Description:
By secondary structure, chain A is of the alpha+beta class. Helices cover 70% and strands 8% of the residues of chain A. A five-stranded mixed β-sheet of chain A has the order 1-2-3-5-4, covered by helices on one side. In chain A, helix 1 runs antiparallel to helix 3 (59-82), helix 5 (115-127) packs parallel to helix 9 (171-275) and helix 13 packs antiparallel against helix 14 (407-418). Chain B is an alpha/beta fold. In chain B, 45% of the residues lie in helices and 13% in strands. In chain B, strands 1, 2, 3, 6, 7, 8, 9, 10 and 11 form a nine-stranded mixed β-sheet that branches. A two-stranded antiparallel sheet of chain B has the order 4-5. Chain B is globular and about 95 Å long.
Amino acid sequence: MTKAVGEKLNNRMLFLLYIVCCVTAMSAAGFIWLTTGYILDYHGAREFLSVTESIPRGTLSCVLQVTAGMLLLGLTYQIRVNQTREQDWVILATLGMDFLIGLWVIMLLDFNYNGVLLWVFANILSYVRKNRYWPAIIALGIISYVGTGYEMVSVRMRLFNIDDYIQVYSSSVQTYLFAAWNFLEILSIVCFVGCCLGIIANREEKLEQTNELYRQLAEANENLKLANEELSEIMEEKAKMAEVRERNRIAREIHDTMGHTLTGIAAGIDACIALSDSSPELVKQQLKILSDVSRKGLSDVRHSVNELRPDSLEHLNLEAAIRQMVDNMKQVSGTKISFICQVPVLKFDEDEENVIYRIIQESITNSIRHGHASEIRILIERGQWDSVLHLSISDNGKGCEHMKEGFGIRHIRERVRMLNGEVTFTNDNGFRVDAEIPIRWGEEYD
Amino acid sequence: MALCLLIGCGALLWILLFAGRKQETVLEFAMFNGSNWDVAIQDSYPVIDDAIRKFEEEHPGVRVRYVSGIPKGDYPEWLSERMLMGKTPDVMMVLDSEFSRLVELGMLEDLDPWMEMDQDFDPEAYYETALMSGHIMGGQYALPMETVPYLMFVNKTLLNQENIPIPEEDYTFADLYDICRKVTKDTDGDGIPDQFGIYKYSWLDAAWANGAVMFSDDGRTCNFTSTQLLYAIRFVKSLDALNQNQRVTQETFDSGKVAFMPLSFAEYRTYKSYPYKIKKYTSFQWDCISMPKGPYGDNVSLVDSLNVGISSRSRHKELAWEFLKLLTSDEEIQMKIFEYTPAASVLRSVTESQEAEAIIRETLDGTEKMIDGAFISKVIDNGRIKPKFASYQEAVQLADGEILKLFDEDTDLDNAMRLIQRKVQNFIDK
């Protein structure tokens, strides 16, 4: 993005102000140094001392110190501008240092030139972002600028005056020197005003940019909302359709299998009733057929239920399916999931496998989604009594103090109840699900 | 860019911090060549050399340095140049003409805190008059090193010739007038008086002796209409009238034809001792007495002191104070001052000591002993010091010019003085 006009103006005016301050402060110190040499050359020291109010301490060291001070101001400016990430404490520290260096330079020049403070405050103002600080900063600026003015300080302290040094020269030279000095002083103020204008323009521009961005954001938000609504409508429709399709399929299944079988059984039973008096032998035969038919029906039902099983269980055994799910979740969510199975062979009836699989799936989902867990442990073992399978899923997440039973939990509970099992949910450095599921170990129906 | 700036700042700081470092402490002392009292002296430096030797022995690792050969006339410019260069000497002799300006510039250290803090320092040891000469704008900014009271020179030979006894110690304006009237006469018979009573006695001398106060301490107001001053001026005018319009000159005086002349103690000692005693006043016997007293005043005269101060920008103020103390309040050094300079010591104990007495006695020509330590002490104690404000010298010159004009005219003194009062007040208001 190209720099905005206000920022460019601000930076240019700041640079100009720095140059003007440097030139003025350093030429003032240099002028005093040179003039002192001139006074010494024509032995006018005593006469000069009867005019001046004070004597600077070492004019050459004053030149060096002022130069050092101005270079330091440039250095702190570079530090502020060149930092890769804008850190508040760096800005605050360098601006504080600038203020002290400014005062130091002003004192070195015996308050003859306090334009350095303009540089310091131009910098401070360009970093103040919150409007509520402005009055305090401006008040501080005005107080320190006026308070370090020569006229103010000379009331309380004896100061040397650069005018006295200028008056050492002949009147024709004096005119030029006074003009140059006044020009530099005024130029400092003009540059400062320029800086302020730059800062204001910069702020206006930033404000405009922010407003524009805000408007775009609001627009995008509106669009997103509409899209969301559309999407949820479509989803709802799709869910309804899927439900209808599923219902139809189940109805067809029931009709095809159960209806067919039950119709056969009902007819067979009717025949048995008719035959019961005349030929018990035939009844027996008939009942045997009926038994076969009902077994066949059962197997059909089982087959139908099979159609509703999870995909993994369709193709894999339970343990492999669980492992695959765990691996998938690990990969997808980055959560550490351990799965320990202390039962040699995980082979149960389909409904049991379904329940176990669903409980584990639901619990992992809950742990990650609600508990924000980073570690989940799954344990399957045979319970105290052989007929019971113990299943526990625990995590290190935040758990939940007031558990609100959602779909997930309710489904788990319902599934376990269908198998006459029990499930408990506890908060124990995380969330923990314990399920006791009675298993029909080795029961065979086929 | 930032790196260049950093290196630049570092180099400057290095120069500022380390370039000026020196191994031993050097204390600079500023003094001028010759005497402060406008008399010739043989050697200006033995006292200071002794003081420096003693100081350096007491403070190992410290050297005191001074620049020799600066004439008194060039000293203010030299000192001003040093100050402008930022090389103000740590300890410096302060001329009266420079004193108030240096204090106003803030170049002299206020010594009051040092005097209070230093247990060894005893302000009572100084003559109060001498100590007060370093007191200005409500503070003690310098301490006196030498002091010189003004005395009245008496031509003993002339008085003897005229059978007039030397005046008593507490003689008055009337006594002086009486003697002057008696001695003013024509000795060679040409009808014009050629022997006179007094030379160089100014209205200021009379004013001091008559208790007149012309300026307030801060130099803001003046008073040229007081009875005391008017009386003093009338008295000097009447003495002047005795000369019958004859001009009395230094030559007249040197030839022994004048009975009295105000003289500083420095001139007294110079012309009473070898080698200068053979140059002046050799044709007659002479000595000094106190100044005459007016009806409103006392036998009071001017007491001048040479002051020494410390630079307020000295980096070794402790040492500077110690050195200043040594110069002004060490009895050994002060005795050396008595010995090598024509002035008196600022310490009562030294001026009144047997040793000082012996030094004065050596100079006497064996006749009548007029001056001793006790006498000098008394004159100093009674003495008045010149006001120290900056424009004093000019204000007095202005008044002097106007008053001298009155001597030749026959105008009403009260009116004339009111005019002078207004003129001088206008001047000091500026």
